[in-house]
């Protein structure tokens, strides 16, 4: 039997090339090796304020993007988190076995809380929902970007704790491992290389979304900040912005950073940026074409309904196991 993997993306906007490079690109290859489960984590998205209409649209849109990227619904389960009530139910059990101190230490919580005028309790307890997403499917592996490492470590600690407290010598839950991009790529904002690229960034020039039209992509890459050194060179300390563009280039072209640096020796940033823009447009064009067809057609709803049925079956069994072990059923 194949081992299971689980991953999710929040419909808190349209996925960026950061989400794509850091996590989603890998989803497609992994579906052959593992029993893959990919979720649109809409309940995570509401930890910060969302416009309800946009959230609904982005949820559908993200499911379509999964398929447009190459996730095959005949091989993998694609579903929407809120269609499987076990996620919210498990999150409660998990919260009751996590410490506030552990949650307050999460850097993503601190980063996101710093941007909010009023911080929801859900933003703090978000990792409990994420732990639930993973353990409900007995996932052995979780393909995520490197910014999620801390949450994966929390999941692993939780599983040890749960098995120790309630397992009576048995491993009731599977301890998962993260699968991170090979070169550890964290794509940074095009406008500020000290901040990660995020789909919900107020400054739309800071990210490239998978649905940006070619003209927008070209404009955003041309206006990406660089430096006054004027040499395409990889140095994350002194040339962080250019190094970020190099990492994007290397990842999308599957070439080494060294070979790209060599190609643009002595040419300044103009040609390099033009080619990166072209490469990005070429990467997203086929995804966008398939996306448009899916959004206009009737298959999408059937796919996510079928995904939810399959996900519900697996998740409700694990939830029952957890509840029984804790003595509440
Ligand atoms: N900049 C990034 N570089 C590499 N990987 C990234 N990921 C996110 N940003 C980058 C990875 O994408 C997957 C989905 O992320 P998510 O939607 O669950 O949440 P997030 O990490 O909070 O992503 P965003 O784009 O920053 O969303 P918002 O703006 O809503 O906060 C994850 O595997 C993540 O590691």
Any overview of this molecule?
There is one protein chain. The chain has helices spanning 17-33, 42-45, 52-69, 86-95, 100-104, 107-115, 121-135, 149-166, 214-222, 240-253, 257-263, 270-296, 299-326, and strands spanning 4-9, 35-40, 77-80, 141-143, 177-179. The protein has 329 residues and is mainly alpha-helical. A three-stranded parallel sheet has the order 1-2-3. Strands 4-5 form a two-stranded parallel ribbon. α1 (17-33) links the parallel β1 and β2. The longest helix is centred in the last third of the chain and has 28 residues, at 299-326. The protein is globular. The relative contact order is 0.15. The chain binds adenosine-5'-tetraphosphate. Residues 9-10, 12, 16, 18-19, 21-23, 144-145, 147-148, 186-187, 196-200 line the site of adenosine-5'-tetraphosphate. Adenosine-5'-tetraphosphate is lined by residues 9-10, 12, 16, 18-19, 21-23, 144-145, 147-148, 186-187, 196-200.
